[in-house]
Amino acid sequence: MKREEKTRLTIEKILQAGIAEFGEKGYRGGRINAICETGINKGLIYHNYKNKDALYLACVAKSFADMAETIEEEMADSGVTYYAARQHFFKTHDMEGRIFLEAAVDPPAALREQIAKLKAPLDALNRREFAKLLARHKLRPGITEEMAFAWSEAVVNGYHMTFRQRGRQNENFKEKIDRHEKEGLKWIEMMLFGIVERED
């Protein structure tokens, strides 16, 4: 086996174990030693990743990229909506979904900026889907598509802050991700159509 292929397989094995560890225990509870207990040599981990932060970021990057790719493929192959494809991803990619929820909603403070950059594949997908949504509606006079995108980002950030603050004790992952998605749709609906009926 060529060295490049061996390195690729090693990194893949480390990332799979890392996603399982951080998906189950989160960044704060995840441990390099626990990953080593799955049969991976600690020296190999530190040869490829400087520290726990570097490995966590690699797991986040892979989870985000896999999520964007899987959702796009399902929409193209099955013709399902973006929301349906997201729901299916969370049902079939449990650990990646857990990493997404932590990294998107409550990322480790010291890694927040790096995680924001890693969200590029998901952000690009979200922007494309939002553009399709806007194309089905008429924007108010004076509102540009760029303004709408900026507003949507501000709303999502506000939603995540609120979601984080309103965390529920003893809520399992399925309940949490279902609440995140359903409440998120409500926020998007309010963002698009407002919260009060306009009187003439």
From TrEMBL:
One MF annotation (Gene Ontology) recorded for this entry: DNA binding
GO biological process: regulation of DNA-templated transcription
Domain HTH tetR-type, chain residue ranges per copy: 14-59
The keyword Hydrolase is annotated on this UniProt entry: no
Top-rank taxon, per record: Bacteria
Keywords (A to Z) from UniProt: DNA-binding
InterPro entries: Homeodomain-like_sf (IPR009057), HTH-type_TetR-like_transc_reg (IPR050109), HTH_TetR (IPR001647), Tet_transcr_reg_TetR-rel_C_sf (IPR036271)
Annotated TM spans: none
PANTHER family attached to this UniProt entry: HTH-TYPE TRANSCRIPTIONAL REPRESSOR SCO4008, TRANSCRIPTIONAL REPRESSOR
Protein name stated in the entry: TetR/AcrR family transcriptional regulator
Organism: Candidatus Pseudoramibacter fermentans
Taxonomic path: Bacteria, Bacillati, Bacillota, Clostridia, Eubacteriales
